[in-house]
Amino acid sequence: MSNFRDLTDGDDSYRATEEDDWVIGEDGNDTIRGLGGNDTLWGSDGNDLLYGGAGNDRLLGWFGYDRLYGEAGNDYLDGVVMVGGTGDDTYEFDVGVDTVDERPDGGTDTLIVGESYSLYGLNIENLVLRYYGDFEATGNLFANYLTGNSGRNRLDGAAGADSLAGGQGDDTYVVDESGDVVLEDANAGVDTVIAGVSYSLDGRHIEILTLSGSANLDAAGNDLANTLTGNSGNNLLDGGLGSDTMAGGLGDDIYLVDHAGDVVKEARGEGADTILSSVSFGLRGVHAEVLTLTGTQDIDVTGNSLANRLNGNAGHNRLDGGTGYDTLAGGAGNDTYVVNTAGDQVIEVADGGADLVESAISLILAAEVESLTLTGSGNLHGTGNGGNNLITGGAGANRLDGMAGNDTLIGGTGNDTYYIDSLSDRVVELHYEGTDLIYTSVSYSLFGRAVESLIMTGDGDLVVTGNSLANTITGNGGDNQLNGGGGNDTLIGGLGDDTYYVDSLSDRVEELHYEGTDLIYTSVSYSLFGRAIESVIMTGDGDLVVIGNSLANRITGNSGDNHLNGGGGNDTLIGGTGDDSYTVDAAGDIVTEAASEGTDLVLAYTTYTLGAEIENLTMIGSIYWGQSGTGNALNNVLAGNSNHNILDGRAGDDTLVGGDGHDTYYVDSVGDKVVEAYLQGTDEIEASVSYSLHGTHIELLRLAGSEDLTATGNSMGNVLVGNSGNNVLNGKGGSDYLYGGLGSDVFLFESINAHEYIGDFTAAHADIINLNGWTGGVANTGAVTQSGADVLITAGGWNDIRVVDAVVDDVLAHIVW
């Protein structure tokens, strides 16, 4: 091993050589610089700082908050804070714990993670999934190389020409650029490609191909039994060899069928679709669509009671099939079709003009027809297609659905229902025209539309905003944002991780259990009781009160003076800049407060330790066992309750206020103050500094540590206990019990009150009994007598000092008169 160096357990600073070095930091907070060579720097325990220098280095932080700087060369880094350099670096990364800083043009770098992760926002090119879990890997703007593990992975290179390499599991690849490359071995699971571009499976061991987005894309299979699924655009699906299943979706799709086992799935209302087949094939169960007018004149045609087929010409035609089951096929002109029966069918070629259907029945627009007007007075349904439709309702309670495309839906006086699936879809609804409802699969705003209710569909992550009415907004299975706007609104979430905006005390949020991890933004006080919401963020600057529920809530305050109560569960409470108060009722509750964010208070039903930047702690409740309160580095005020409390302010000049129980206080600063009222239990102070009980109603004072400290009592009957140092114990008034401990202790009596006790006088320790405050320097050896195993120092009347387990000669030799 070249230049091996094992440092000490202290805080070391070491500079390696220009050769290949191996340095181990051991315990302590070490700084190690690698300089030249291919070095291995191992920080071991402690918070270490490692610099790789030149060369291809291995930087291993190990335990502690370690910061690693790779600098030049192709480095391997495993720490908490990792900063690469100009080389091709590799990072062992723990999500939620570690941070990586990789600059642009810093080489081709690799991140190795053991869970789902995204490279978005990082200057990292490659991502490797370790272990065997079902993880997701997402790239960034670079040409990424994403490598899966043996689990079921989802690999999404995002922007850039990416390479996606799966493993043995059933993997999913997201392809969004023509330059993306998918690498999959044969017999390595049943794998899926989700493509936002035209894509072919030829030469790839992939079974399933799904097109995403709304663009008009092509999908081609291979010699396996493929499943091809289109998007909302106009797709060309070609399964290739094998028995393939093809589902086009909402667009006007074309299927190439070349095998008797091929299956086409096309739902009703999903565009005007065409099947090109080279084998026998039936349309049964497949909703695919295929009098003729000639010339260019604008001609009107009316059918009869038969099943008519009316074909238009290049002019502007009006086609009315009558009462039969008719097929109406226009031409290049702006045609009008009159539909009277459910069996009527309209066929319009592409670029065949701007066409209109006038329907007395519920109708789904055929492909390439732009407009639909419902002429009947019943509760009719009008459904569009893949184009940009104009659909107009009648006097009934209509259901208007433009389907794909940028559609305009105009309701009437009835209670209408609208279906929205495009950000450019437009709803026209006037005031006093019924109580109306929108179903939407895209984000949408009710502003300017007199619509009362909205229900999200699908599983997309939608954002919906209400208007000034009392809206009812219902989410879907995605991660939704629900904002009722003005009015007293009802917001109902779904299965996803939903976000709600509350701005009125009368706003109502409904969320069931097991329906995602949900968040409320509120500008008013709010309670999560009865609502399966996990998180609340307060907005504005009002002094708000937010109460959680039985879940593990995360509640975040605003700039006002807030009260945060997580309710049941292990909650995280995050304050703001105001003077905030927190109610803690579980050991797992966490309170977070930043520096300079007001004077804050925790009200705790349980044993609790103050986090950083929180000043005060008050214990509440009435549990019967001991309840501890611990401070932090600030000047804390800790207040107990009626239980037997343990109060420890830690660093800082703290104020510890007991209650009715038998309390224990820990004092570690001369500035610490203990407040205990009269008749509030039998209380104890454990002090690591000299301390006096004067002015307190404390019975027991115990010195901690090994320093030479002084313990002073009060007018009560105290018990004073020393530590291993040389202590001075002064009971003051009352009948006191003094225990010096291991050191050379002084038992100081300014007066003798009733019966005083020295419990561990030891001549061998050079203990001193100082009676000078009582005798004024006048020796009175006759007052010192043997009383059984003890020595009794009599002061007259009922006043004496009993020295336990001692002999007269030893006591006389150690008395200061």
TrEMBL record:
Protein name in the entry: Hemolysin-type calcium-binding repeat 2 copies family protein
Main localization of the protein described in the UniProt heading: secreted
Cited InterPro entries: Hemolysin-typ_Ca-bd_CS, Hemolysn_Ca-bd, RTX_toxin/Mannuronan_C5-epim, Serralysin-like_metalloprot_C
Gene Ontology terms, MF aspect: calcium ion binding
Key words, A-Z: Secreted
CC annotations in GO: extracellular region
SUPFAM superfamilies recorded: beta-Roll
UniProt-listed Pfam families: HemolysinCabind
Top-level taxonomic group: Bacteria
Compartments where found: Secreted
